[in-house]
Write a structure and sequence with these properties.
This protein is of the alpha+beta class and about 240 residues long. It contains 6 helices and 9 strands, in the order H-H-H-E-E-E-E-E-H-E-E-E-H-H-E.
């Protein structure tokens, strides 16, 4: 199994297919995208290599919002208000948003710590995932290993993700990468309805919060479909 041809985790793929039948949430795309990529660049990323290809096709000063604008619609999204993460939510009005593309899951936040990063994970059977991260703007072209190296501990014995994601170990198929337990956001208090976030995008004032508004607009000025992770995916919890 190769990370460059990432496995399609059956439950995740089925979840996306089922959600397509639901009524979409989000504002109609009433403006032309401000960021585009050349023909042939993947706009529905399914591997971390695909994400690197998209980012490298953008200007080196491109923002997270610019990257998000290039993604093909609809987007399958779940929003969480949890702050227990290295990329914490800044509250209901600026939640952490998970964008799901089959076995690839990426997350962004429109405000607070982590707003200049795209966190990535590729799901594998047994609820395991390989994590990575891209900081934007990149200021240079990325190599294939940059997203994995960005999250390594100083001694390269593991990743910063191991503080929350248990049973981390080296990923044999990609030197320098690590695999660990995959979690889903906790339901209930942490769940933020997408209609609420859509309203936040519509009422955001770019003169007051330009970065926040740009990220919200990049996601919600287009078709967005609520996503739910499979119920047997382990629930997120901080490690003691």
């Amino acid at each position: 199994m190769s990370l460059r041809a990432a496995p399609l985790l059956g439950l995740l793929a089925q979840g996306c297919a089922e959600e397509v039948a639901e009524a979409p949430v989000g504002a109609a795309p009433d403006r032309a995208p401000g960021c585009t990529v050349p023909a042939g660049t993947p706009r529905v990323p399914r591997t971390i290599d695909d994400v690197v290809a998209i980012v490298n096709a953008l200007p080196e000063d491109a923002s997270v919002a610019c990257f998000l604008e290039t993604l093909q619609r609809p987007l399958h999204v779940q929003a969480s208000s949890s702050f227990q993460s290295l990329q914490p939510s800044a509250g209901d009005r600026s939640p952490r948003m998970f964008l799901v593309f089959d076995s690839l899951v990426m997350s962004v936040v429109p405000a607070g710590v982590g707003r200049e990063a795209v966190e990535l994970s590729v799901q594998y059977p047994g609820f395991r995932s390989v994590k990575a991260e891209i900081g934007m703007p990149t200021r240079r072209k990325l190599t294939a290993t940059d997203p994995y190296e960005r999250i390594l501990l100083p001694n390269h014995s593991g990743t910063v993700c191991s503080g929350c994601h248990s049973f981390e170990q080296p990923f044999a198929e990609l030197p320098g990468a690590f695999i660990s337990t995959a979690f889903r956001p906790r339901p209930g208090a942490d769940f933020v309805p997408l209609q609420f976030v859509t309203d936040q995008a519509r009422t955001c004032d770019p003169a007051k919060e330009p970065e926040r508004c740009a990220i919200l607009a990049a996601i919600f000025e287009g078709e967005v479909i609520p996503y739910e992770f499979p119920e047997d995916t382990p629930l997120f919890q901080t490690r003691q």
